Amino acid sequence: MRKFVFLAMLMVVPIFLFGQSSQTNRTTMYMTYGRTGANLREFNNMLASKGLSPMRNGYSNLSFGYLYRFNDFVVGLELFQNHGPKSNFDGYEIDYNSTRFYLNVGFSFTEEGRFQLIHYMSIGSGFLNFQMLPNAEPETFQALMDNPAQGFILREGNLHKGTWHMTGFLTEIGFQMSYDLPIPGREEAFELLARFGYSFSPFEDSWKMNGIRFNAAQSGPFLRIGAGITLPDQNFFYRDASLGAHLVYGQHFTRPDELNTVLEENGLRPFEGRPNNWGLKILGETKGFLYGMDFYNLGLSGDANESKTQTLNSLRIYANAGLKFFEQKNLEMGGLAGLGYGNIRYTLTDNFKPDFPLLFEEPKHDGMMKNGGLMAKPEVYIAYGIPISINKSRVILGLHGGYELPLARYRLGDLSMSKYMANPYLQFSLGFRP
User: Fold this and answer.
1) Are the CB atoms for 386 and 394 separated by under 8 Å?
2) Quick count: other Cβ atoms within 10 Å of Cβ 332?
3) Cβ(124)–Cβ(101) below 8 Å
């Protein structure tokens, strides 16, 4: 239920606010990179009790976001991928990473202009992965089937099962400073920005896995710098310049048939159904030229047998460019070409792992194989805009169709997954465009 409430907040709050008449407006898409200070205290204490060195403090942050300013108020969406430092122990690599999805709201201390100072707060949910696996993967997929107990993998809010499995309540409070650099001949400007503040995981046991709390992996003081594309106020109301944010849900018409055959040959259950996805699409337009970014996550999961669970996950990130070739009143059509990154990850996990410290002493329970590379896609879309204010802001309903083309081999050991990665897809989108 809380997930549907969060989705309602994402859509209803912006529509209510954007529906008001305002005199200054700005939209921005941006990327940031930085560091967050963190100490996995309970896990490090366990290592210290065994006479081992602690894991290094802190983790890196890579984010992509969309921000809309109306008058002095700001609202936006932001995706984070965070990576912890890797440690080596007795032939194993200990590592953790997390994903977050935030709704940002805030207030600007400065008038609309090249320099902006914003105070904001974020709320959202996330995913945490903590693992201890051998330094090298098995050479073949059959080797993983023969010996699946490679190490251990702990997941909370398991994104690998699908986007809606993200969990927890995460918050962030911070400040953003930015400065615009004009782009000659363009409505857009290049924006440089910096952020600092503190991330929180308010509930003590939200990220407790196998007897140890990992809350610090989702919290801590941070400093990030970044850059983006922004539509300043003086150019914002041009009908031929806009930048919108859209939530997308889609179906991919593919099945992991080759993988399922190998699973059945080894006494495991095959994956059922087709992968679907939830994601974020940012789409901008200037005089009929389209540009933007896509982020979405495909997940399949199920029981492998009575004691094990398996997932097949793929992340897709695309940079898109194209043309709008039809527009009549509130209806439009366009085409895009995308080039980006995709990965494929198969995980087989034991459902009955012990708690720490025994899990650290006897780590062989789970196994995983992964690969990644370039992806490309052509896409066409049709969209209908519903006006919600006098300044031409609209709710956008869209239908997107395309075909994904793998530009890499995508092998899990010796098992090719290229056929699975190449697929037609259909997506529905709901978004906002000023």
Assistant:
1) yes
2) 18
3) yes
Give the phi and the psi of residue 6 in degrees, each rounded to 5. Answer: -65, -40
pLDDT band at 276 (very low <50, low <70, confident <90, very high): confident
Cα separation of 368 and 136, whole Å? Answer: 11
Residue recorded with tokens 């912006």: 14
What is the pTM (predicted TM-score) of this model? 0.91
Give the side-chain half-sphere CA count within 13 A for 203: 9
Strand partners, 366: 151
Please name the amino acid found at residue 52: L
369 CB neighbour count, 10 Å cutoff = 21
Query: Cβ(126)–Cβ(98) under 8 Å?
Result: yes
Render pLDDT for 89-120 as a digit per residue (tens, 0 to 9).
888 999 999 999 999 999 999 888 889 999 99
Q: Are 314 and 343 in contact (CB under 8 A)?
A: yes
Q: How many helices (H) and strands (E) does the chain have?
A: 7, 22
* Phi, psi dihedrals of residue 356, rounded to the nearest 5°: -70, 150
The DSSP bridge pattern shows strands 331-350 and 152-156 to be unpaired
Q: How far apart are CA 266 and CA 191, in angstroms?
A: 54
d(CA 387, CA 395): 7
| Phi, psi of 192, rounded to the nearest 5 degrees | -100, 135
Helices (H), 310-430: 358-361, 418-421
Report the C-alpha gap between 277 and 157 in whole angstroms: 16
**Dihedral through CA 297, CA 408, CA 413, CA 369, nearest 10?**
-20
| Token pair 């366009």 in the structure block, residue | 334
Closest C-alpha to 176, from 280, 24, 74: 74
